[in-house]
DNA sequence: ATGGGTCCT
DNA sequence: AGGACCC
């Protein structure tokens, strides 16, 4: 990073910036999954309502915790050691200067800079956010002490505001945003910054001359819906005004599991089968581990491919990389995934090859650049649970899962409360746990179990190699780095410290 | 332009 | 099955 290497940078320019850069082929997410799970469980000690987004981002709804603290001043004072003179822990967002922007269409936009810094809300959220910010500080402090990760956090009254607040002061800091500041803060952002306005929507909006959130507000709800569809359109209509009624959704077990690999090209069936069996191998390790823990097995198998030709066509249409994938899926009889089945690999590879030939007819040439094997529709498997694949048993599974994990159901009364402006909730995001350089993560490829073993030894990556396949700058290889902070656990906080604060 | 995921159409 | 979104 210090040398100018950035995430998702082309290899060519990364090597220009840093010639001694070492690039490794492939990846093994195992250690990151484990780290993420550790953080997830850590966070659940503070509140059961934790939503995970990707591996390193979490939302916590601490509404109830904050209410408890408010009701117990003695306990409250114990986390207020984190408060500063203004009652908030570290950064309180104070607004920023807004510049007037002239866009392609000549629309001039933006609101004047705010002059007042007082909380304009009388609902008591000011106080609740003070407590929330102390709670966030406490959680981040403990996270570092116990697990060794630094994190940034945003604290506000909606998920969106919390998420965006977390980006204001970035490495290892936190920012609290009062609701009164949210609309102006949003106004000056590019629309793409709004969570929910992705690549596709941002392009459609750009075609209308809309680049900034302030301009988005000029569009009627009807217009937005016709442009972006019912769901995203109506959501964005509210989000751009700072209105976010989404709830923190504690997720249960994963619904799908997949392994994928991209490569410069594969054009023969033998190679494809080798790659597929490698992917399957990694996937089965995961389904086995899950079966041991939860006793369920998948009943759906999916293969997806990306063909270079098709991908290029799509790419021309959309100027987007993720086009050009196609998939076939099939129900799989219960129990095929059972670790005890000695013919399991055979059966599954055979099924996958059948899917492959549905995707790529035998008489056609192909040039694949990606393969993905996925499983889904996990169902409890006790051996005698019959052959249910219907929707009924699916929902039965979901219900069991929820009660077993003691997860918080989606409470409708909470949703009702969130529909007004004066939110009771404090939502917090602990973002970007900087797991990339944690000592427990593998330092080189040789420690990873899921290597590209199917490649000829000569071509396989060695530690000294800079690039595994192709010359520097060849397509298909990119640099991905994350903010890296080497964090070492110091003296552990005792369980009682936590209980003191949270078992009220 | 990775290697995962979620949910909606 | 594909397409949007998220990291």
TrEMBL record:
Segments for region (Disordered): 435-491
Annotated InterPro entries: DNA/RNA_pol_sf, DNA_pol_Y-fam_lit_finger_sf, IMS_HHH_1, Rev_trsase/Diguanyl_cyclase, UmuC
Domain UmuC: 1-198
Domain of life: Eukaryota
Organismal lineage: Eukaryota, Sar, Rhizaria, Cercozoa, Chlorarachniophyceae
Provenance organism: Lotharella oceanica
Protein name, per record: UmuC domain-containing protein
Short name of one Pfam family: IMS_HHH_1
Any one Gene Ontology molecular-function term assigned to this protein's record: damaged DNA binding
UniProt entry tagged with the keyword Calcium: no
UniProt entry keywords in alphabetical sequence: DNA synthesis
Entry's Gene Ontology BP terms: DNA repair; translesion synthesis
